[in-house]
Design goal:
By secondary structure, this protein is mainly β. The protein contains one helix and 28 strands. The chain has one helix at about 140-145; strands at about 25-30, 40-45, 50-65, 70-75, 85, 90, 95-100, 105-110, 115-120, 135, 150-155, 155, 160-165, 175-180, 185-195, 200-210, 215-220, 230-235, 245-250, 255-260, 265, 275, 285-290, 295-300, 305-310, 315-320, 330-335, 340-349. The strands form six sheets. Strands 3, 5, 6, 7, 8, 10, 11 and 12 form an eight-stranded antiparallel β-sheet that branches. It has a five-stranded mixed β-sheet with strand order 4-9-2-1-13, with no helix packed on it. Strands 16, 17, 19, 20 and 21 form a five-stranded antiparallel β-sheet that branches. The longest helix has 5 residues, at about 140-145. It is elongated.
């Protein structure tokens, strides 16, 4: 059986339950992608030619109430109609979330072929710590609450074994805060952490217009230690009136990772525009300004330090000498007399 590595916060459980006559269906809970804060629920038939109506499904996910984690809403539901049948049920020191599916769907499954029937993520995106466990279970709780009827196929109970992936040691890192501010010329991201033992660092990811296409824009190494740490990053490569979305990918030294919550920001503008050429540039940067009034352009390094200032007059091409700048990525900030702001990015060869 293929093994899957879970994130450190959730230690997978391997167990089995009594098999029932007929063609059995196993059920599993896997951390996917490995190291993320999301899970796949999979079913796996043990015999071929299981052709008929998938008429029912019921299973329960259990986790410790000791840690500040909860399941979020269902992310994907490819075969439809799986839903949480109640709010999480607290029983002792554990929480139980029942799920069920009751609509018929005609399917033909092959023995040993895994099918992902649901994906779901945990909601505590500000914490990577804790030894809490998420597992699909079959115990006294599920029996007494009638949630151990894992799969019904063509009218018969098809409950097989529970199978889950392997686990790693827990990560202690906690993301205490993650904020965004509009500073007119840039969107500034800031965050605080504590307990950075065995922690590699952060990848800041951004998506433009909507939150569906995140791309890595910066790598920030961890400062390390057990005490509180603070970080900040300014994004000057922005256009007015567009929504920008940001998240942190937090990586430990063993290859595990999880994501922060998503932040959004926008800088207001009035339709002003700028064109730069060439890009990349080696000796000179040409800036064509089409604003209705004069403006000031500043050239900055990735840390936001101003290296050059230049005045722009409307409807003319200005030239800025950049021969003295080291090779790398730079940002431009244009500010009008009315404090309207426009940003751009260029590469110095």
């Amino acid at each position: 059986m293929t093994k899957y590595i879970t994130i450190a916060s959730f230690i997978a459980f391997l167990g089995s339950i009594s098999q029932i006559q007929g063609q059995l269906f196993d059920i599993g809970l896997f951390n996917m992608p490995p190291g993320s804060n999301c899970f796949e629920v999979r079913v796996r038939p043990t015999a071929t030619n299981n052709t008929g109506n998938w008429s029912a499904s019921a299973f329960t996910i259990k986790w410790s109430d000791t840690y500040d984690v909860n399941l979020g809403s269902i992310q994907t539901n490819p075969y439809g109609f799986i839903k949480a049948t109640a709010s999480p049920i607290l029983n002792g020191t554990f929480k139980y979330q029942p799920f069920s599916r009751s609509n018929d769907q005609f399917l033909s499954w092959t023995a040993g072929q895994e099918l992902v029937v649901m994906t779901i993520c945990h909601t505590n995106s500000l914490t990577m710590g804790g030894n809490g466990t998420f597992e699909i279970i079959n115990d006294a709780f599920t029996g007494s609450n009638n949630y151990n009827h894992y799969q019904e196929f063509a009218g018969g109970d098809r409950t097989g074994i529970i199978y889950n992936g392997a686990a790693l040691s827990p990560l202690p890192l906690e993301l205490l805060a993650f904020d965004i501010k509009n500073t007119k010329s840039a969107l500034t991201l800031s965050w605080k952490t504590i307990n950075e033992q065995n922690f590699e660092g952060f990848e800041l990811e951004r998506s433009v217009i909507d939150a569906d296409d995140f791309k890595k824009m910066a790598v920030i190494p961890a400062k390390g230690g057990t005490f509180e740490q603070s970080y900040a990053y300014q994004d000057f490569d922005i256009q007015p009136n567009l929504n920008y979305y940001y998240r942190l990918k937090m990586n430990d030294q063993n290859g595990n990772y999880t994501y922060s919550n998503i932040l959004s920001g926008k800088i207001d503008g009035v339709g002003i525009g700028i064109q730069i050429s060439p890009n990349p540039a080696s000796t000179e940067l040409q800036i064509e300004w089409n604003g209705i009034e004069a403006a000031q352009v500043s050239i900055m390094d990735p840390q936001g330090r101003i290296l050059k200032n230049h005045s722009l007059n409307t409807s003319e091409i200005s030239k800025i000498n950049i021969e003295d700048l080291p090779t790398g990525i730079y940002f431009g900030r244009v500010v009008t007399l009315k404090n309207e702001v426009l940003g751009f990015k260029f590469i110095k060869e």
